[in-house]
Please model this.
Amino acid sequence: MILISQRLRLAPMQIQDIPEVRAIEIDVFPSPWPGNAYHRELTGNRSAHYQCLWREDQIAAYGGLWVVGEEAHVTTIGVRRSEQGRGVGRTMFCALVNRAYELGANFISLEVRPSNEVAIHLYDSFGFRILGRRRGYYTDNGEDALVMWSDLIHAPRFKAHFLHVAGSLEAEGLGPLPDPGWPGR
Ligand SMILES: CC(C)(COP(=O)(O)OP(=O)(O)OC[C@H]1O[C@@H](n2cnc3c(N)ncnc32)[C@H](O)[C@@H]1OP(=O)(O)O)[C@@H](O)C(=O)NCCC(=O)NCCS
Model:
């Protein structure tokens, strides 16, 4: 039985969330962002859109996008270690894709380490494809980055799959989903 209090709830990231986000990030990322990066993103970057996924009074995951013109770029997604492997990342990623629809984007891009099989599998399952490789992108170990790309998020196949996944989620605060028809909202 799933208790109501166990449900996940999405909310925009707030300044007061940053210490908890940072603690998750330092734990799960090999190369966390510098200490002031989230503050800068939330207060000084109008293209930036960050969200937290809460389970009761604890942040289970967080993620963000930059949206410039018709392109949304996933800047980060992180799931608390104790929450990994139970669908939280899928829920968070779904929220980011939905935000991209809401903000009028047509495409979504992101970078991922070739060694990060779980993340690649997650993005692949949403219909993202590998478009290219940035040599030596990650400064901690010199690993390349794979560039993954959604293609048109209003394409019927991409959107139908997104709506199917989004409709199956048990999370509050996802917001209105895109219209299934063309060209979207
Ligand atoms: C990558 C990450 C966001 C995925 O979130 P998660 O909550 O662990 O993943 P989910 O439980 O939502 O599972 C997503 C998919 O990966 C699969 N998966 C999850 N953990 C897995 C594991 N350890 N091994 C293999 N597959 C796994 C799931 O089965 C699911 O696939 P499915 O939809 O085909 O069933 C999360 O693990 C994380 O924060 N990792 C550290 C930070 C990071 O790497 N961020 C991404 C940077 S690009």
User: Anything to note?
Assistant: The CA atoms of residues 27 and 52 lie 16 Å apart. The first strand starts at residue 8 and ends at 12. Confidence is low (pLDDT under 50) at residues 1-5.
